[in-house]
Protein: Ubiquinone/menaquinone biosynthesis C-methyltransferase UbiE
Organism: Ehrlichia japonica
Amino acid sequence: MHERSKFVNQVFTSVAPRYDLMNDIMSFGLHRLWKNKVIQNIISGSLLDVASGTGDIAIKVAKNKQNVDITVCDINPKMLNHGRDNAINANVLNLKWVCGNAEQLPFPDNSFEYYTISFGIRNVSYRHLALNEAYRVLKQGGKFICLEFSPLKESHPLYKLYDFYSFNIIPNIGQVVAKDKASYQYLVDSISKFPYQEDFAQEIENSNFTQIKYTNLCFGIVTLYTAWKT
């Protein structure tokens, strides 16, 4: 495993017990609305949810969509264990759980109609490998759906406020709630280093996807990307 992957794995092992609570606190609950945008793109068929974490996307799909065969994939066993517990508590018992790396997925070519990844692509060591793998495992006509935080440009009217909240408030919330300031400092840093929307859209295109679109949510703090394997 790449050194960065090892570090990220350690981060999520540390934050797993309080991950869902921290998401609610940091986003004021808005992450649930953002994730609904992902679910709205799914109709029926086979779905691979990568970097699924504690499984909230997969569980929501299972509860709100019929005829979707869902596979959950995450590199971190502790996060998957919490996801399984969440699914059982939600009486969602038909999910497949797989421990796997987004950069080297343990699935055959042309396996899924949908590939989703929410707040996970910025944590991989090599984005181009993860995007290539997404393309590989999707069937012809399959849809790529990615939800991710976006850095704000300095010209953005909310830049200073968002920057202050990100670097001064979130790590301290992490210390109080999860007893782990360093991990949440990493998560904030990873957002600031992620490409702007047009640049990441180009990376998606470089992996042979077509019809790439992106929609800014919450003033561009979060972006929903969609693309097709044609």
Notes: The longest helix spans residues 159-178.
